Structure formats: C-alpha cells, structure tokens
Amino acid sequence: MKRNRNLIILFAALLAGLIAPLVTGASGAGFYTEVLLGGLMAGVLYSLVALGFVLIFKASGVFNFAQGAMVLFAALSVARMAEKMPLWAAMLLAVVIMVALAFVIERLVLRPLVNQDPVVLLMATLGVTYFVDGFGQTVWGSDIYEIDLGIAKEPVMILGQLFEGGILINKDDVAATAAAALLVILLALFFQKTKTGRALRAVADDHLAAQSIGIPLNRIWVIVWSLAGIVALVAGVVWGAKLGVQFSISQVALKALPVVILGGFTSIPGAIIGGLIIGVGEKMAEVFLGPVMVKAFDLAGGGIENWFAYVLALLFLLVLPEGLFGEKHIDRV
Amino acid sequence: MLYRENGQFKTSYRADQQMLPILQDRMFMGLLLAFVFVGAPFVFSDYFFLSILIPFLILSLAALGLNLLVGYCGQISIGHAAFMSVGAYAAYNLVLRVPQLNFLVVLVLAGLIAALVGLLFGIPSLRIRGLYLAVATLAAQFFMDWTFARVKWFTNYASSGSVSTATIDLFGFPINSPVRKYLFLAAVVTVFAVLAKNLVRSHLGRAWMAMRDMDVAAEVIGIRPVYAKLTAFGVSSFYVGVAGALWGFVHLGSWEPLAFNITLSLNLLFMIIIGGMGSILGSFFGAFFIVALPILLNRAPDWLGIDMSTAMVSHLESMIFGALIIFFLIVEPQGLARLWAIGKEKLRLWPFPH
User: Does the beta-carbon distance from A116 to B329 stay under 8 Å?
Assistant: First the structure.
C-alpha cells in the first residue's frame, strides 16, 4: 500500500511538472506542444539506443556499455560507404559489418568470460567501447560526415487552424519516428512469431533451462549482438542524418543509460516508454525549468539536460527499484 | 626457501594481529619505503616524477578510495570522478576564502566535504543495487560536472570557468619542485594506505565485506545495511576527495570545468578491475598500469620508427588500450593483485615442488 501511495505521489508530481508551464502561463499552447513533440522525438532516439542495451542484457546478462560505440561505428560505416555507393547498398553492407562485429565480440570477448561477475563483463564492454571507437575512426576517419536520407530538412507547419501560428516540425524527425516505430514492430514480430525469437525469449527467461532443452547459447548470443548491432545501425543512421556523424554520437548514447534504468533492464516496452519519458522530461526541463534556475541561482547558462535525465531516473528508482517494468527481485539467503 | 613463515611463532595477541605477520613481508615493506622516500629522489628524473610518479600516486589514492567502495563493499560507482571534483573545488575555495588554513587541514576538510556529497549520492544504494546503482551513480558525475561548470561561485566568477591554484606552502616549506611534490604525495599516500589497510581489518571493513558477499545474510547476522553502505560511500568519497584536491593542487595546478569527467571515472574503475578488486595493493598496481600504458603507447611509434599522424596515434592508442583491457580481464579477471598472490604462493614452495 505504501508503495502504491509513493507511486501515486510520483506520478502526480510528474504530471504537475508537465503541465506547470501551461498553467502558470509561461508558454502558449502552440509553443508548448512544439516542445512536447520535440521531446517525444528525441525520446524515440533514446529508445532506439536503449533497445540495444535491453536486447543484450536480456539474452546474455551483459550490460553493454559499448552500445554507444556501436551506434557511432555503424553510422560511420554507412556515411563513408555511402560516398562510394547508393545508400541502400551501404546500409546492407553495414548490416553485414555489424553482424561480423557481433560474431567477433562473441568469440573473443564473451565466450572466454562466461560466468564472470557482471562487473567484469561491464568492464569488458568498456574495453570493447575503446576498441570500437578507435577502430571505427582509424578505418573510417574522424571528421564530421553526413548521411543524406533524401528527406527535406525544412520544417513544415501543421495544425495551423488549431493553434495560433501553428506548430513547426521537421520532416526528418517524423521519418525517424516512423523508422523507429517500424523497427520496434518488426522486433516484436520477430520475438513473438519466429522460432529464433522464441529461443531468444527462452534464453532471456532462464539460461540453464534454455540450454538444457538444446538451445545453443553461443549462437543465440551472436544473434542478439547482431540484432543490437542492427538496432544501433538504425539509431546511428537516424541520428547521423540529424546531427552529422561525429564522435559525439557515442557520447550522446550515454543518455540512453537513464532510459534503461528507468524502464527496467529487461523490458523492451520499458525501453520505449522510458525513452519517451526521458525525452519529454529533459526537453521540458531545459526549456521551461532551465531559465528559471539560471535566474534563481545566477548560473552561467542552462544545460540542465545534461543531468536531468539521471535525476529523473533516480527519482523513479527510489520508488520502483527495478524500474518501471523490470523483473521483481526476490532475495533468498 | 627465503620466503616462508615456519619458525615464526606468535606468542601474543599483539603479534597475531599485526599488519604484516611475516618477517619477510616486513623487511620487503621496509626496503620499499626506504627506496620510496630516500632512494627514489636520487634515481628518477624530473620528467619521470611529473608524468608518471605524481599522477600515479594521486590516482592510486583515488583508486584506493574507489576500491573501498566497490571492492570491499560491493557497491559499484561509475561516477567517482565527481567526488574528486568536489574535493578539488572544495580545496580551491577553502584556500581562496580562508587563506590562513594549513594545507593539510584544507586537505582533510576537502575530503570531509566530498564525503558529505558522497553520502548524499550514496542514499540511493539503500534502495537499488547492482548495475542499477552503477548507472544511478552517473547522476553524481553529470550533476557535479554541471554544477562546477555553471555555478559561478565555485570558480570564483572566473570568466572562462577554469581555476588556478597557488603553490602549496607547508609550514613555510613550499611544495614547488617535482621531487618535493613527490615526497609530499608519497607521505600522504603512505598514511592513507596504512589507514585503509587497518580500516578493512576492522569491524567496519568486515561489515562492508559481509555486505558485499551477501547483503541479506549480512543483515540477518546483525549488520545494519544503512550504516555499512553509507560509511562505505562516506569513507570512499573522503579518500577520493582528498585525491581530487591533490590532483588539482599538486598535479594540474589549474584546471578546466571538465577536468574531472566521466573518462576519469571509468579510468578509476579500470584501475581497480585491472589491479584487483578488494585489494589495497591492487589499487596501486592498477593505477600504475593505467598511468603508464598511455605514455608507453604514445611513445611506441617513435621507438619503432613509424611516422604517424597524432590523430592516428590516439585512435590506435584507444584500440590497443581497449584490447589490452579485454585481454587482462580474460587472462586474470581477479586482477594483478591475484598474480602477486600467486607469485607469493609459489615462492613459499620454491625450490621444492610441494
């Protein structure tokens, strides 16, 4: 009961924070909706990266810090190969590269470290991060590259009759959201309908039981890391098209970490909903809370979105220690 | 033959409880300390002091602090550089605003302030654990990065946001040359290492280890989790805060807002993983490895006579660094301290096979 009460308080506070700018008249409805949509679209990108984390954690219990590096690597591969060939071919080739990367990681990193402590595995993926970052930039170069998806970037006005001045949104943002949604649907289908998907879910449920009925764990790991690589590819292309392919992409991916703890390490819906919450919360905080804080504390500029996501996730964790949809943890001595 | 404990009988509780019960260990430690404080200043060059030994000593102190939390109490933190920054900025502000304080007092106060902040960020550990906690500690990292970059008071309204420090004056004795800096650091680190060694043998250290091994069972036998976890966060942040103050004042001298960023946090974690979790000695091994490796990698192309662009070198460095980390984890997941222990074990039997 106490827990439920805390939950209710938490959500009430969130909701209050969400509608505060509207109620206090800090912004008009049109601008507010624009910020909200912007947050949702950023959230979709976070969800994409978080999805990669969750896939790998579910199947192999590895907290894959390298997901950000994989996003960067995939984006770099596509950007550089697209200079020589059509985009679709570059993407296909990049898929092959990501699968090969998954294979190599499984062989050289995961297999020798089977049964180690989760911290050791986390550290190993940090090693992978350094390696892939260095490797990607050695092979593909370290300038800023562009991915041209052929979608116009100029904003379009929608809902002009509903709000005064309408709402501006970017076409490429809409395309990104659509791509992310499509990817999620495909993944869901794959997990629910195919034999491999079922095997993956079995492994996620219980390694030992899955192995005992003849599911080859090693192959499953390769498949999962490949899937995470492909998700990283989509995230990288979408992100790269928006911001340009550069090293900072792998840093921005750190933003996906609060998303994962907020949603729960083991939940795909958690990654998506968590991403949306973080995306919206962060944009709202930056736009509406930031100026207030700058004024109140005499700061040298806002930038609270750097930590807001983490604090938001922490607040959630204090009420729900396993995240929104994480597996409940029962301790036995 | 040389290293064995038979014949060394303990006839009192005092003898039984001493820190280094084996005679050869005591002799080794005595020789080591003699070399560190007397021999080293004559042997090494200024370059070696400035680029290797000074960062090594400070980072081993920080790694030691992190090891108390991660290795002994089992609470992972990926945000410990944040507490270094708290220590550094606390020391900066103390020296700036209360200039009559002795630097040693400043150091302790900076550590205490860092410990307070550490306690604050340790509170979530009572509710969440494992990897969730690890990610949650990143909140400390980003929040502190932001605080020191944005809140002008901490940097004394410097327009660039970077701060610079004056030379430390210790009882009228300025710490300005590399050798003096080194000796000062060696003294501080020795004191803190001895303290840590004894701390982990005390009831507090045993409570931490019980917490690490199984927190529910520890609770059942009467260890208060709130007390054990929060003291671990507090003590660990104290150590790291002191290290941060030293890093700022002795090593960097002046620093930018993001001098204590997430890369430093990750490096601290690497140090204790490679050195050995739950080992005081391991913190030193790990710190040396992480400090020396990039320097070695940086110079390797020169030695091999290969001409490369700087960007290329840094990318290759990152690759080799990553690969070596993985290699080490695979070969010896328990860290270099484990190799040391194996070596000692072998030495005990040597030259007889069993």
Answer: yes
Contact A134 B149 (CB under 8 A): no
**Count of domains observed in chain B:** 1
Cα–Cα–Cα angle for A258, A187, A46, rounded to 5 degrees? 25
Query: In terms of CA atoms, which chain B residue is nearest residue A117?
Result: B333
Q: Helix, strand, or coil here: B174?
A: strand
- Specify the residue for token string 């106490």: A2
Inform me whether the C-beta atom of residue A18 falls under 8 Å from chain B C-beta atoms. Answer: no
CB contact under 8 A, B70 and A119: yes
Ordered DSSP codes for B19-46: S--SHHHHHHHHHHHHIIIIIHHHHS-H
The pTM (predicted TM-score) of the whole model is: 0.88
Cβ-contact A264, A322 below 8 angstroms: yes
Which residues does B67 contact at the CB level (< 8 Å), separation at least 6? Answer: B272, B275, B277, B278, B279, B280, B282, B283
Structural domain contains residue B32: yes
Say which of B76, B143, B318 has its CB closest to residue A134.
B318
- Does a structural domain hold residue B148? yes
Closest chain B C-alpha to A310 CA, distance in angstroms: 5
> Which of A132, A187, A217 shows the shortest CA–CA distance to B325?
A132
Chain B touched by A134 (CB under 8 Å): yes
ipTM of the complex in this document: 0.83
pLDDT in tens, B89-133: 999 999 888 888 888 999 999 999 999 999 998 888 888 877 788
